Amino acid sequence: MTPSRDQQRTRTAATTWELIHAERAALADDLAALGEGWWTTPSLCAGLSVREVLAHLTAGASLNPVRWMAGVIRWRFDFDRMVAMRLAEQLGADAAETLARFRGVVTSTVKAPIPVEAVLGEVIVHGEDIRRPLGIRREYPIGALTGLAEYYQGTDMVVLAQGRIGGLRLAAVDGPFATGSGALVSGPTLALVMAMTGRETYCDELSGEGVAILRDRCRTPVK
């Protein structure tokens, strides 16, 4: 019997949650031996340290739709302020507590009213926001990266991505991801994902006549 569309969506969501939990666990393990002085390292998120980005991930895994809406109302639709306050709630007294709180949500399936693919994007993209400044490299499953790239190429929900790559042709050199038409941007799938979400430094790993355009768009958010 062929699975129904609802059954297929349920299976896809379950698989995505498995990837999310695996990526959270890997990030926690990567940071376990991090010395105290490294936690204040600036992340790729402007104005945030790697410790603060980790607290942001914890907050996201602790925020169900009811709490999310309560925050929206409390902070009068000021989403930046809401995110900052939720981050502060999860920061803890020191880096050890920040990491412990993150470990506590590794297997959480709690999320705001966003697609589960966006949650995977949060942990991979913010994981890189943390790892790259610390010199930590991770080999992500190419299937997870490909699925994430395919998600981002079709949406501007949560982060601007679709608008950022308009008029460009993206092609991965290490996997099957390809999208768009126009000036070519090619490179590793991870670098494409990170550039799609506005991380300019990953443009250094890309090639093609469209890279300069994408780099400029990383500097200037697309409306």
Offer a few descriptive terms:
2 domains, Nonspecific Lipid-transfer Protein, Chain A, 3-stranded mixed beta sheet, 223 residues, globular, 9 helices, Four Helix Bundle (Hemerythrin (Met), subunit A), mainly alpha
Main structural class: mainly alpha
Poorly predicted segments: none
Q: Supply Rg.
A: 18 Å
The total count of helices amounts to 9
Major sheet: arrangement of strands: 2-1-3
Strand content: 5-15%
Cα end-to-end separation: 45 Å
What CATH calls the topology of the largest domain is Four Helix Bundle (Hemerythrin (Met), subunit A)
Helix percentage range: 40-55%
The level 1 CATH classification of the largest domain is Mainly Alpha
- The CATH architecture term of the largest domain is Up-down Bundle
Number of domains: 2
Globally, the shape reads globular
Largest sheet: 3 strands, mixed
Order of helices and strands: HHHHHHHEEEHH
